[in-house]
Amino acid sequence: VIRAKAVSAKEVDSGNDIYGNPIKRIQYEIKQIKMFKGPDKDIEFIYTAPSTAVCGRLLDTGGKKEYLIAGKSEGNGKMHITLCDLVSTWDSLSPTQKKSLNQRYQMGCECKISRCLSIPCYVSSSDECLWTDWAMEK
Fold first, then answer.
1. Nearest to 23 by CA among 44, 46, 45, 54
2. For the chain, which terminus, N or C, has the lower number of CB atoms within 10 Å?
């Protein structure tokens, strides 16, 4: 999960399909502003399919729009995104969302998620976090 700007884009080959035809991808060179969750190395490139018809994401490469991007990182400075991944302009986020990302996002990273199957729910250790979504739906 990163905050970044796309500064350039180019079409690249990313291997071949089972018939030997080249697979095209759009390679966005990005300027990473902040890493919220991911590898220790900065993300330099984001790859996506060449059109939305094949689940690609289009990013503005003017270098002015900032994005919140949640994709799949390879850990080597490369990330892949599809239509199924979260990609939002930073300006479209609410003040609460921005504050939560900047100040609270890492707070729950070390806890062990435990499902709450019946009320009342209890934690068994200090690093345990209860997942109670099912209770909210009923």
1. 54
2. C
Residue 116, classified by CB atoms within 10 Å of its CB into exposed (0-12), middle (13-18) or buried (19+), is middle
H helical segments located in the chain: 95-99, 133-137
Span 120-135, pLDDT tens digits = 777 787 777 766 665 5
Q: Are residues 92 and 117 in the same domain?
A: no
81 and 127 share one domain: no
| β-strand partners of 26 | 11, 48
Verify that 132 and 72 share a domain, yes or no: no
Residues 73 and 126 in one domain: no
| Digit-coded pLDDT (tens) for 54-98 | 999 999 998 789 999 999 987 788 999 999 999 999 999 988 888
